[in-house]
Amino acid sequence: LRSVCRCVMNRLCLCLLVLVAVAAQDSGKCPTPSNCPAFERSPNHQYVMGLIKKQREECGKEHLCPRKLPPVVNSKCRNGKSGPDGLWSCNDIDLVAFVPLLAMGAGAEITGNDVWGWTDPQTGQEYAIAGAQDGTSFVRISRGVPQVVGFLPTIDTGYKPAMWRDMKVYKNHAYIVADGMGDHGLQVVDLTQFRGQSGMSVNESMYENVNKSDIAAVKKLSEKIRQAIPKVASKHFPYFGNCHNIVINEDSGFAYAVGADTCSGGLSAIDIRDPANPKCAGCFCADGYTHDAQCIIYNGPDKAYQGKEVCFAYNEDTVTIVDVSDKANMKEISRTGYTDAFYTHQGWITGDHRHLVVNDELDEINLDVKTRTLMFNIENLAKPIGPVVYHHPRKSVDHNLYVDSHNFVWESNYITGLRVLKFSEEGADGMSLKEVASYDMSNVAAYEKTPLGFHGSWSVYPYFASENILVNSIDNGLYVLRLTGEARKLFHHSKPHKHHTRH
């Protein structure tokens, strides 16, 4: 009887799993394999999200987030200051332009989030794709005064606007996701629609005769600006609901939805080789939730994986490396934890694919220390070595970082803003960092209240050929920056790596 009962129960479980998979397909969501556990946010992730929401609400009540600042064009870094009335601190970085959240098309009480860039291959013109709680702004930045050429509202799911939005680009298409928004899914935008598009020029005149402390007047201005910005054509795919980040390997033509409510929050592969018609392609859930990742065609020294597609996943308490070459059978290569791993958040490989630079979003809070950046040697993907820890001169929570072909590390560190560091193989451990430039767009009042708070800069995009740098600020809006002085000289004297990838 016991054997029969086990058999019946096994069959029942199998039926339930099949029904779950069928339901996922019927709803349009990418199917989650039966061996994957149910999606569940970890206690640490719930803690971070709750802390961010609480601080943002408190800051909003005091009318510090967002701040109602005027647009700025061409503000040099002089005597360590830049921006309106020397509001922001700088070192070897000039402000090319600043586009406040209102001018981007965001609502009056809306804050910003992620950012990415696109260069039109026909015209060479550069565009910022900047996220806000209530949608995504498209800003042409290569004609002097920035022009907002489109604003795409978020998918209306009945939830409050999303504090978390992410976007990446492949073959002239932008792919946009959001977290904390229920069934938001994937938005796809053909970016060539902006070619030749006249937009709304960003200048101070739009703020004339507006009392920025009058919320009703600011809301009225916000509606006027939104109406002046061209509409954006897009497609929507319900392959998941919430999704924390979208990762794209431009060399393979595959995207990976991570932190989504499918595939246990792991690496959910999406085939985007036909850019306007993405398709579900596979799932890796063996290490559970992935907060962010970078996926590349590996060209490093580990011969076992040369030429294969490899993802470096940041899985809350480990750096997990996965061979994703076969989407039907993605395999874990290694899973590396470290001392004081509080929330392994995000990272990027160096240009030669030999080292990994990583941030942990909760170590500064839990250890009450200055900003820490972690470095790993990944010459053997099965056995990474590290981390070696770089201690910054100031205290703040680090958030997103990217490494360029010159091995410059561009860090967006919340309240201390953009920090630019040079990675080298000097030092006893063969890995070191040195800060060479900075631009602090922080909210001074918020910093004094919570130096380890979640305000300031959200992310950075350092990959334009023009050397324009994008930073999107939570409290203020979009910054277009450029290296100057000794930092710019060092950048041009650094030999770029040919295998470097920006995706």
Give the termini separation: 56 Å
Look at the helices and sheets and give the structural class: alpha+beta
Number of helices: 7
Strand fraction: 35-45%
- Looking at the structure, what is the overall shape? globular
Number of strands: 32
Could you give a short account of the major beta sheet? 6 strands, antiparallel
Order of strands across the main sheet: 2-3-29-28-27-26
Estimate the mean pLDDT confidence. 90
Low-confidence stretches: 1-26
Helix share, percent: 10-25%
Radius of gyration: 22 Å
Describe the structure.
The protein is of the alpha+beta class and 503 residues long. Strand 2 (81-82) and strand 3 form a beta hairpin. The protein has helices at 2-26, 43-61, 101-104, 215-228, 363-367, 444-449, 485-493; strands at residues 72-75, 81-82, 88-91, 93-100, 112-119, 126-132, 135-140, 147-153, 164-170, 173-179, 186-190, 200-201, 235-237, 245-249, 254-258, 267-271, 279-284, 292-297, 309-314, 319-323, 331-336, 344-349, 355-360, 372-377, 385-391, 400-403, 408-412, 418-424, 432-440, 457-461, 469-473, 477-483.
Summed up, what is this model?
16% of the residues lie in helices and 36% in strands. With 503 residues, it is an alpha+beta fold. 51% of the residues are buried.
Q: Main traits of this protein?
A:
single chain; 503 residues; alpha+beta; 6-stranded antiparallel β-sheet; 5-stranded antiparallel β-sheet; 36% strand; disordered N terminus
